[in-house]
Amino acid sequence: xxxxxxxxxxxxxxxxxxxxxxxxxxxxxxxxxxxxxxxxxxxxxxxxxxxxxxxxxxxxxxxxxxxxxxxxxxxxxxxxxxxxxxxxxxxxxxxxxxxxxxxxxxxxxxxxxxxxxxxxxxxxxxxxxxxxxxxxxxxxxxxxxxxxxxxxxxxxxxxxxxxxxxxxxxxxxxxxxxxxxxxxxxxxxxxx
Length: 192
Ligand SMILES: Cc1cc2nc3c(=O)[nH]c(=O)nc-3n(C[C@H](O)[C@H](O)[C@H](O)COP(=O)(O)O)c2cc1C
Prior knowledge:
Elements: H1 6-14, E1 23-24, H2 30-40, E2 52-58, H3 59-75, H4 80-92, E3 95-101, H5 111-131, E4 135-139, H6 147-154, E5 161-171, H7 183-186
Antiparallel strand pairs: 1-5, 2-3, 3-5, 4-5
Helix pairs in contact: 2-5, 3-4, 3-6
């Protein structure tokens, strides 16, 4: 029998996201963040293509992102609600890591697998930040899905996407856990 790492399993069994709407300082400092990013970068990556990049965002970056989101909403003819939704997370942002899916040309590794690796990186960040005692929340929002916004904001070229913006801070209010999927509903044992 393999030796189980029970504390890790117990942590993972209870891990949950918190809402970035309730985030306050403090946030991790540079040295701690470097450790968290290093651990999160232990991510499955078929073909070792490193099909992602990360941008660490702090208050001045969020101010710029909020302005860009509002500008883009106005260009698109958006109403006050679209502006508010677009600016929202950026107006409130304290510290986050934008994970950019950046597939590399390959004859062997499909783009889908490279995008999944970026998703795995987001999940790794979420998990390691939570393990370090921080509150974390993986969000995107409409601007992240807008090609013009993501080019202006994050320098994304045509093949790049925002896989996630992982906010990391302290939760002023803790969320209760949400209902989790029932195994029987989503797992089929064998091919029958
Ligand atoms: C790719 C992706 C994008 C998401 N974007 C948002 C978002 O923009 N706004 C939001 O409220 N939640 C968003 N979520 C959901 C949050 O991460 C939510 O808090 C999460 O489902 C909680 O799950 P957990 O407690 O298992 O970590 C997103 C989730 C994923 C996977």
